Amino acid sequence: MTLNNFFSSIAETGHSYNGVGRVDYELSNKHHLYLRGYIGQGNQTAPLGGSPALGTASSNLQDYFEVAPLHVGNYSAVLNSTLSSKVTNQFLFGANYFNQIFNDFNNSFNTQSMGLNLSPDAVNKGQYINGAPNVVIGPSGGVFEQIGLTPPEGRSDLTWHINDVVSHNIGNHSLRYGGEIRHAKLNEFYHRRGTGKFTFMGDEGPWAGATGCGAASPTAACAALANTANDPTKQNLLPGALALADFLAGDVSNNVNDPGSTIAVGDPERFVAVNASSLNFQDSWQATKRLSLTFGLRYEYFGPMHSEHADIANFEPGTGLVALPAGQGVFSPDRNNFAPRFGFAYQANQKGDLVVRGGIGVYYDQINLNPFLDFRPPVAAPQGIEGNAFGNTPVTTYTAPFCGTLPDGSYQWDVVQSAVCPTGYTNAGLANSPQSIFGKAVACLDPNCATPPSPSLPFGDPKGVGVYSVSKNFRTPYFYSFNLQVEKGLGNAGVVQVGYVANLGRKLNVVSNINPNGQFPNFGAILQLNTAGTSNYNALQAVFRSRNWHGLTSQAAYTWSHALDEISEYRAAVLDDFTNKRADYGNGDFDTRHLFTLNFTYDVPKAAWATSAWADRLVNGWQVSSIMNFHSGQPYDELLSGLNFLGGSATTGSNKFDPSVPGLQWLNPSAFCNPSEKNPVTNLPDPGCAGGPVSRNKFPGPNFRDVDVSVIKNIPIRERFSLQLRADMFNMLNRVNFASGVGSVGTSCHEDFTAHVCKAGFGQVTDTIGDFNGAPGLGPGEQFNMQLAVKLRF
Description:
Layout: E1 13-28, E2 31-46, E3 66-67, E4 70-82, E5 87-104, E6 123-124, E7 127-128, E8 134-137, E9 153-170, E10 173-188, E11 197-200, H1 220-226, H2 238-249, E12 251-252, E13 261-266, E14 270-285, E15 291-302, E16 306-307, E17 312-316, E18 320-324, E19 337-347, E20 354-364, H3 370-373, E21 395-398, E22 411-412, E23 465-470, E24 478-489, E25 494-513, E26 523-546, E27 552-565, E28 586-587, E29 594-603, H4 613-619, E30 622-631, E31 644-645, E32 664-665, E33 672-673, E34 692-693, E35 704-718, E36 721-730, E37 751-752, E38 757-758, E39 764-765, H5 769-772, E40 785-793
Parallel strand pairs: 8-11, 23-26
Antiparallel strand pairs: 1-2, 2-3, 2-4, 3-5, 4-5, 5-9, 6-7, 9-10, 10-14, 11-13, 12-22, 13-21, 14-15, 14-16, 15-19, 17-18, 19-20, 20-24, 24-25, 25-26, 26-27, 27-28, 27-29, 29-30, 30-35, 31-33, 31-34, 32-39, 35-36, 36-40, 37-38
């Protein structure tokens, strides 16, 4: 048996039908009207990919491909007016419509009829919710393919805006000033976790304990599965085998790092709106013949998200859950967002081939609504603020069944569906009238869920439910942007440019669990969205551009950069310690230290002897072009891994495919150890795990190398007609580009309590970069492929 050796032969499919309409109408010689409309409709059936921004897993099983039909529309009207010889005005109205739903390719499963009754309130539009639950078998996202990755989800939004800009020339000054108002409405109906999630880790059944494979002297079969001999040609199959045994027995795990189950019951559909406006002024001043200056000031207002139906409750520390009236924002408005900007360009010599440019500015950013409504937390907690168990439309997130759990926190999913809660469980003897795993959607009557049991409320307020909070001090994120560039012409050969670029982000959105130790005893995890994050990006950039030199037009660019932050992703990532966010400060998820790109087009010289029309068409008109991309790998630890680094070489430095993985052994297992894993014999952590903690995103993943080449033949037919034949070859050298970035490297470390290092199987990359990012086969950096094309140009 070999792990990670399943590849689906099912092709992903998709289609898109689009239409564009445009009308230009000259109202008068001073007023010009421009109308444009775009409508589109499409669908795609494909694996999700492993992008951390999705906050989910991916499956190669066709039933669990994601289906995502889409309808979009974009409409605009622009009126350009010449008010005088020095003043012009542009008025714009635009509207954008977006509607998309998501579900598993096979969403016909009715778990209730299959003997897995989730909850009386596991419903969608009043009917029992269809679709497979998310089942994870094994540690670190599962050894087997996950199922039930896309429950019923979707959103429909309409955004319109009005913008007006006046351009005014006064002497050496070119002034621009204007403003914008914007209104966005969103209907979001994400039943994420609505079909439940169940994890089977292999730590519940007797096969994992002291009488099974966890014995001091395990059986030969257990030893063979675990590869205790550390045979480099074999893998450790024991975790997957134990997890599969738990699944077959229905023993849902209780694992501190991945709660065994979670479900969100109730109606999560919400109708929300956001208003925004801005004013801007800019003066471009030609101060001297060789010096130009640009001054600007922009005011931004991004209003808080609010509900139109009084169906949102926010958690406020010190107060508890607060039901917000219709129209009230989830945080206090931020009205002091003034953004000054300054730039200059200076011609440093009389010849004009040496130019220095620079600028500095403040830029405010409107955060999208995903962290508010679809955060996709890695812990058992609501998906967003719509998931709180309070108010008129509560959504309750459970991690334990209605009947409770066994003393160790686990449960058997058939037994807890009994009409009377079984002996040994927390709520033994209670009537479970729906005979479901989880209870109904229940709203807390008290803001802190502290209502005690009474005859009319036998259980009192629900206890241990997770809640979602938006800080009342939430502010508009912004960043400082700096750049300084020096450009030098090299005669007819080209231009070279060297520069420094920096972006310093402040008040960035991060999410933290403000209840890690039960400070709020009636709640589980309390995820709070706030704006306490920072980021720092610094880069040195160098570019050389040639100007059709002997038929060659090219650009070569190199960037050295360093990106640092606490959290890079806008969802699915939670600070490790809300009292010390600097503990997570490290390399950003997209930190790419070295990047080199080269692109060129070369016109093959004409053959002077090809004088006839047919010879000219056959021999001349050839072009060769290429795009080359080489960059270092990106970090893979989105959060602190909890491992220790022992020193030496962290990576193997290899890029060679290893069939025994199968994939790439990227990290060196002997350079790491796990200080928290307990020895199954002593039930204590490994005292021999030395070294120090690995900081977040300390090491990068595999690098990337790609060379694409095109051979083009242009054949003139008539004066205005020509035929182009081309062959485009991607990844010309057929290099294996392994996945890089967050989640690409397996960092689940099972401790070798004898050698005090990670066992074999740690630090492996088992995917290519294209498939990892949801574009298998034909994505950037995938295996060599070629396309042939014919174009008729007129």
